Amino acid sequence: MYILFFLISFGASIIGAICGIGGGIIIKPVMDAFDVLDVSIINFLSGCTVLSMTTYSVLKSLVAKDSSINMKLGTPLAIGAAIGGLFGKELFSYVASLFETPNTAGAVQAFILLIITLGTLIYTIKKDSIHTHKVTNLIACLLIGAILGCFSSFLGIGGGPINLVVLYFFFTMGTKEAAQNSLYIILFSQGASIIRSLFTTDLSQIKIFLLVGMIICGILGGIFGRKINKKINEHTVDKLFIGLMIVIIFINMYNMYHFLSI
Questions:
Q1: What is the pTM of this model?
Q2: What gap in Å lies between CA 194 and CA 191, rounded to an integer?
Q3: Confidence (pLDDT) at 89
Q4: 90-104 per-residue burial string, b: 16 or more CB within 10 A, e: under 16
Q5: Which spans in 67-207 are helix H?
Q6: 102-128 pLDDT per residue, tens
Q7: Under a CB-based contact definition with an 8 Å cutoff, are residues 40 and 205 in contact?
Q8: Domain coordinates of the chain in residue numbers?
């Protein structure tokens, strides 16, 4: 099972680095589907993997001076996302406390993620015909970032497709530019979320070997994903992203059924 989780983390991180979705939107629902760990533990493992991948990808692009990150817009978005990420964790804890078992909270996560993924898929297909905006207001950026961070942290996905749609619509970014800025935002939101989890989540169920292995796979995935991203065009990235969204929709439909039937 460990080997399988390592492969999932590695593959998800490659796709995450290419598309700018972090990888959590793949890791989280796929690990949920195996139903071998508590939902909160999967959230933490997914978050650590995403954090390792985004840290490598962002730092490498900055060092190599080939970064497309718009610091003027990206930094307030990232700071807002970090604050929203903390609130999202609190929100998940509250929602989980409303149910007798964590499986029901997992079903709620799967349902919301299903709706968001479906909306993202529709937007991505139609985005060439949708009028976009160029938001520059600092307060607006902070608020948008906070909403992104809250959703990503609550769902345990790191950010993913929500970030890309927001960057497309509110900031008129191209696919590859949005991907790099999305990873920058995820780095902040996931970092804040992980720090909070260290103090509030019972991590005794986590095997160190599994945690370290997934983190290493996240970094390796970031290395390979970054190389692939440089070799393909934006149209190919869009097609990969659309295919991924379709797969994630079906996985979340299964997870909803699975969690509610337990």
A1: 0.88
A2: 5
A3: 82
A4: eebeeebeeeeeebb
A5: 71-97, 102-126, 138-155, 161-171, 175-200
A6: 778 888 988 998 998 899 999 999 998
A7: no
A8: 2-261
